[in-house]
Amino acid sequence: MEYVIFLISMGALIYGANYIIVESERIALHFNISSFVIGATLIAVGTSLPEMAASMAASSAGKPEMAVANVIGSVTFNIALVLGIIFLISKNLTTKRDIFKKDAAWALFPLIIFFIMIYDGTIGKFEGFIYFALMGAYLLYLSMDAKAIESSIDKELAKEKFAWGKTLLFLLLGFIFVILGANYTVESASTIARGLGVSEWIISLLLIAFGSSLPELVVSITAAKKGNTDMVIGNIIGSNIANFSIVLGSAAIVNPLTLDFSKYGFDILCMSAASIMLIFITANKLYNKSAGIGLLIIITLMLYNSLKEFL
User: Fold this and answer.
1) Packing angle of the helix pair 64-76, 289-307 (nearest 10 deg)
2) How many CA atoms does the CB half-sphere of 235 hold within 13 Å?
3) What's the predicted TM-score (pTM) here?
4) How far apart are CA 158 and CA 286, in angstroms?
5) Nearest CA-CA partner of 51 in 79, 85, 78, 23
6) Which residues of 67-171 form beta strands (DSSP E)?
7) Per-residue pLDDT tens for 290-305?
8) CA nearest 233: which of 65, 52, 109, 106?
9) Domains of the chain, earliest start first
10) Using an 8 Å Cβ cutoff, are 21 and 42 in contact?
11) Rounded to an integer, what distance in angstroms lies between the CA atom of residue 46 and that of residue 97?
12) pLDDT by residue (tens digit) across 38-84?
């Protein structure tokens, strides 16, 4: 029964986040807010709403390891699994934008700050606010380069007739789905972990992180089909910044997060390897099957390390 609750909760979490994204964009368009502002906030925050809700719920429930594992797992899945699949199944991927020069550093900044913060084994409330400041810096950077995200706006949505009743209803439903979905996801995942005799860390690192990374996977596959490599990689970089800054930051503000680096070092190493490999790929424009295989090897190693006792 707990597995059913978990799947339903994850579905509610993802669909609720989608409702919030679409209706927020609808309101912004109604008030003639620039497409840049809509795109920047939606790319940076929108697809990370499931992770944020799940980590905040875990933190408030006194489960800091689940909150941190969700972020580490999501970042690794976003880069190694999502980009790995995209590079493996796509042909002739090219970029118009110099991603390494303009964006690669943003894949590294959050990781460096993370290692500095966990040096003492705790990410406190003050450090959570520092991560929020990083998100502000990223949005400020984007404001200087609006063209980087202009193509993310739903042009068809802008043509639709605006109705306050419908929009507010779907917004309300979205928030209800996200809040309830997050809480039941964490609780059911904890029950599953206890039933299987595995740690909550593994459940969060794999199941919750994978489920909450589905929005990024869908967005990236859709963009790849249209040949928009810039959006594919930009979405991953933006989502990972949001995972660290907003997701980890908000969870730390709710309750300080503790982490045993020596215990979970391998998973953190996989996340770091994926981030560094992303920088290497963008530096050399290796948007090909070889890069995809390399990324998938990283996620395979993380999965094997987590599940080896069951194999």
Assistant:
1) 150
2) 29
3) 0.81
4) 36
5) 78
6) 122-123
7) 999 999 999 999 999 9
8) 106
9) 2-310 (1.20.1420.30)
10) yes
11) 23
12) 555 665 577 777 888 888 888 888 888 888 998 999 999 989 999 99
